[in-house]
UniProtKB/TrEMBL annotation, chain B:
Keywords, comma-separated and alphabetical: ATP-binding, Nucleotide-binding, Translocase, Transport
This protein's name: Phosphate ABC transporter ATP-binding protein, PhoT family
One family name in Pfam for this protein: ABC_tran
Domain ABC transporter, residue spans: 5-248
Keyword ATP-binding included in the entry's annotation: yes
Gene Ontology biological-process annotations: phosphate ion transmembrane transport
Amino acid sequence: MSNTLTESGSRGRAGDKVFSGIALFAGCLILFVLFCVAVFLLWQALPTFTADPAEITGGSGFWTYIWPIVIGTLIAAAIALLIATPISIGVALFISHYAPRKLSQGLGYVIDLLAAIPSVVYGAWGMTVLAPALVGPYVWLAENAGWIPIFAGPASQTGKTMLTAGIVLSVMVLPIITSLSREIFLQTPKLHEEAALAMGATRWEMIRMTVFPFARAGIISAIMLGLGRALGETMAVAMVLSGGGLIASLIKSGNQTIAAEIALNFPEAFGLRLAELIAAGLVLFVITLAVNMVARWIVSRHKEFSGAN
Amino acid sequence: MSKRIDVNDLNVYYGNFRAVEGVNINIEARSVTAFIGPSGCGKSTFLRTLNRMHEVLPGARVEGEVLLDGENLYGPGVDPVTVRSQIGMVFQRPNPFPTMSIRDNVLAGVKLNNKRISKSDADALVEKSLTGANLWNEVKDRLDKPGSGLSGGQQQRLCIARAIAVSPQVILMDEPCSALDPISTLAIEDLIEELKTEYTVVIVTHNMQQAARVSDKTAFFNIAGTGKPGKLIEYNDTPTIFNNPSEKSTEDYVSGRFG
């Protein structure tokens, strides 16, 4: 009898060990891959930082070369998030709290489908449909709001501008933010929703009192994931934007993003140019890392009130 | 400040399923009325129709009328939001808003519908409500801490403070002590006794001793079997229900022979 006790105990423990081993391995693997990427980028980019500034594209050093496209990348991502975030949260709320159940299921499915469309398709659509369609509005903007630097004219006659790229990107990040937000909204404890309703809250007040505070951290994570895609998106931007130097106007040709810059120049690059582009990749890597850390910090700031305790 | 409730011929449905059938009941103002009965007999469902919380669930609906001092809650043009602000509710599990401080929890209902309140009025109201819920002395030094940091019994009293802060006509309680320890339960029961002087209190409970201790009148609900609608079997003064009920099933239930 004492044998069965020890045997079954040890067998259970073996399974436990295997599982914790696998979990540990998976965790370490991610760190290892991240480490390798960082080492690769640093190693390959090194020539850029040691080279004579005059030899770098533009002729006056790496930072002069990189900062316009860093700004371009951030502008594109900012436009995308500014457009996509309110729409996504609205759609997610509609699906989770307003729509009849049948409609919400169908709608959720369609949104998920939107995420499955390859970015090259978005690029083609942006280039052939959206850009020409936006020429008219851009001309109008240049005429009527031209005194605002970002709408300074003359407007692009092809519509292949930063604003167009930002709009295409916003459509691409929309499904990410929407489906994550929807999942989180649906997890709001019924207990709290009913507490709000029972003291005479309207549906919107109930959402403000219970759903948003509960989902706050989740919404920020969703936006950051969207931002990740917007920052790193290559193909669509490369196809939609006719790039150039940094300019304030969003409706003229010009500006460039890091990802598109790398994609467009990589095939013909060698030697120092290659190192430059990899250094640009390193900068993008650092930006994404920084963005994620800021997001973590925002999420953790209100831990005491998060509802997790 | 408290009103009476008269229910006429109320049927409650979840979709096509009739959960509660033909309830007629008159609940006096400034009294404590207890609903007792076995699980699934529809007493909680019925309680939720008294402040129109039942219809929050998809497909749920009600036939019949509920009169609050003669005014039908289900009449045309009646906004459920207004109904709920006049008839407060305390739930089975304590549910203070976790993202709000203790103070904000108490003020949550008052601040609804964009009503403004000055800081001194708010302070006075917070103290009055928390005192009314016998919680003031325990939390007065940490009003800015989250409500979720309190013990279960304290959280439930915070929920009661939140409910009475809006000066409702009626307070509904859905098994308010079932998740609490005996000492917290006693604190809530004492509180119910005090609330009676100002409010109409309706309480659902599984605990018959509790019904006997706190209520003036008791309603016994029962179902004939699974899938059948729940019915109000007997409604009378609490001592009568417990000592001399007129229905056989009531007697069986209160004497512990079933349920």
